[in-house]
Amino acid sequence: MPSPPFANRNEDVIHESGTSGGLPATRQAGGCAGAEDRRSVRRDRPDRRRRGLPDGHSHHAGGLEAAFHPKLPYTLGHENAGWIEEVGGAVSHLKKGDPVVLHPAVTCGFCVACRSGNDMHCPTWKFPGVDGVDGGYADFMRTSARSVVKLASGTDPASLAPQGDAGLTDYHAVKQILPFTYPGSTVVVIGVGGLGHLAIQILHALTPARIVVVATRPERVAFAKSFGADEVV
Ligand SMILES: [Zn+2]
After folding, report:
1. What are the phi and psi torsion angles at 110 (to 5°)?
2. For 125-166, what is each residue's pLDDT tens digit?
3. 192 CA to centre of ligand 1 in angstroms
4. Is the pTM of this model over 0.85?
5. What is the CA(232)–ligand 1 centre distance, in A?
6. Which of 144, 159, 174 is the last residue of a domain?
7. Are both 31 and 105 inside the same structural domain?
8. Is residue 127 part of a domain?
């Protein structure tokens, strides 16, 4: 099996988690759509060292396992970006080499939930890397056409992988409060971790609110301000 370039923010998180160990690689990863609606996404670099897991995966043996009852073994990795490696016969808008970021869920696109934009409530919803469907720690993963978001040509997808889950979580939360934020409003972000630092940026982009961040680690003060926090306490 070839070892194509790697694109994932997991390297960053690995540095934080500092754990050790490897993961199996597979081409048979993820996806629940029909064969012609699938495409493989290339995700590995030959120089990548598989050293650990994102912090979120440490919860897998707890809440996630209880919620999803995944059948073991399978490949983890639910925040994914990379390059298109192969597309099915029904896919015409993507080609090999396109940089992409993946929506974490694989949904049908036809049910009431999908049609109304509530994809996460799709009755055939799958969550590769979490619910027992193979995820992005493999050299390749397979997902549906609906789950692929094409990036501008030449984009390095590595830094955008967290947008496939953490970024969506923050975006959803910020969208909820948009009707209540006006010039002069204050929004408080508690914590500057994997979600918090993205929330600051999304608030900065979408609202006129003053952004106050609560941080417990001194080094995160400058970090938060560099992303648009007006004040850090
Ligand atoms: Zn659906």
Report:
1. -120, -20
2. 999 999 999 999 988 999 999 999 999 999 999 889 999 999
3. 33
4. no
5. 41
6. 159
7. yes
8. yes
